Amino acid sequence: MSVPRLEGPGVSIRPLRPADIDDCCRLYHEIGWDEPGLSPSESRDQRQAWLDWAIRNEQQLAALHQPPYGERVICDGDGAFAGLIGIVPRLEPFGRLPGLGGDPDARLTAEVGLFWALRPAWQGRGLATAAARLLSGWMFESLGLQRILAGTEYENAASIAVMRRLGMRIEANPAQEPRWFQITGILEAPQTEGRNTSPPEPAAASARL
Fold first, then answer.
1. What is the pLDDT along the chain (209 residues), one digit of tens a residue?
2. For the chain, what is the radius of gyration of the CA atoms?
3. Contact of 184 with 97, CB cutoff 8 Å
4. Eight-class DSSP state of 34
5. 3-state secondary structure of 24
6. CATH assignment of 6-188?
7. Where are the domains of the chain?
8. What's the whole-model pTM score?
């Protein structure tokens, strides 16, 4: 169930490796994900601990035949580190969303989520959409998923635009909190076996460009 190296036009996805530490530190710093109050050396130590865990996590999940949760590297057409993309567990009250029941008292349920984050210098080039399309296609084909979800905040127009370009249905949570559950993008598996196999029309994807 390991995610192999995936190749697409102008983009590729590969596993994390120890040498990615500097790029991971730059990514978190540039998009404002460093933990407040930490010095640069403390932030690096935190990223190092995460990177070591992420690499071991991928290996152990594969050995246990578990879903391949975790982050991978998005590379541009030249092979440069552009950002991260990941398969993540989502545990939220999805039944509260209008399109999934609209029950204000719905309890938590588990779904498979898609996450992405790009360094600012690589934003606006379509890399997030291309990488998300590449990974979600593999997830549907190899994992046999029924649907994939992504989440973001109301004001994150860039990520909502990525969701729309992927063909996701956008669902808004009537409640304000938590922030990562304000907007949910839902991508259903392509139809097969004689049914409509056309990809969904994009509207007129947790996740940061």
1. 789 999 999 999 999 999 999 999 999 999 999 999 999 999 999 999 999 999 999 999 999 999 999 999 999 999 999 999 999 999 999 999 999 999 989 999 999 999 999 999 999 999 999 999 999 999 999 999 999 999 999 999 999 999 999 999 999 987 777 877 999 999 999 985 444 444 444 333 344 44
2. 17
3. yes
4. S
5. helix
6. 3.40.630.30
7. 6-188
8. 0.88
